[in-house]
Amino acid sequence: QQPSYNREDEKIRNFLKETDGGDKYLDAVPEKIAWSALKKDGKIVDNIFTFNGKAVNGVTISIVPDKFTIK
């Protein structure tokens, strides 16, 4: 099952402004984060979401356990 991403957009926005290549994930008006593209290009390393080798401030990962039902 996919992990859950808990986001704090203001912290992520500041991280992207300070990171090389991060500006392409910010839409011009109103400075909205292109989250799906960032998520696609980022990586989870040891339960930490990273981009360009740096931990993305403002994103925490919650691992969702596998779910199954017995009928």
Question: Care to describe what's here?
Answer:
The strands form two sheets. This protein has a three-stranded antiparallel β-sheet. Strands 1-5 form a two-stranded antiparallel sheet. The protein is α+β, with helices and mostly antiparallel strands.
Protein topology:
Elements: E1 4-7, H1 9-18, H2 35-41, E2 43-45, E3 48-51, E4 54-55, E5 59-62
Antiparallel strand pairs: 1-5, 2-3, 3-4
- Distance N terminus to C terminus? 20 Å
Largest pleated sheet: 3 strands, antiparallel
Q: Identify the overall geometry.
A: elongated
Q: Report the portion of residues in β strands.
A: 15-25%
CA radius of gyration is 14 Å
Secondary structure: number of strands: 5
In terms of structural class, how would the helical and strand content be classed?
A: alpha+beta
Unreliable spans are none
In terms of quaternary structure, the protein is: single chain
User: Reading side by side through the largest sheet, how are the strands ordered?
Assistant: 2-3-4
Mean pLDDT, all residues:
85
Q: Specify the helix fraction band.
A: 10-25%
Topology pattern, helix = H, strand = E: EHHEEEE
> How many helical elements?
2
Concise overview:
This protein has two helices and five strands. The chain is α+β, with helices and mostly antiparallel strands and 71 residues long.
Structural features:
24% helix, alpha+beta, two-stranded antiparallel ribbon, 5 strands, 2 helices, three-stranded antiparallel β-sheet, 24% strand, 71 residues
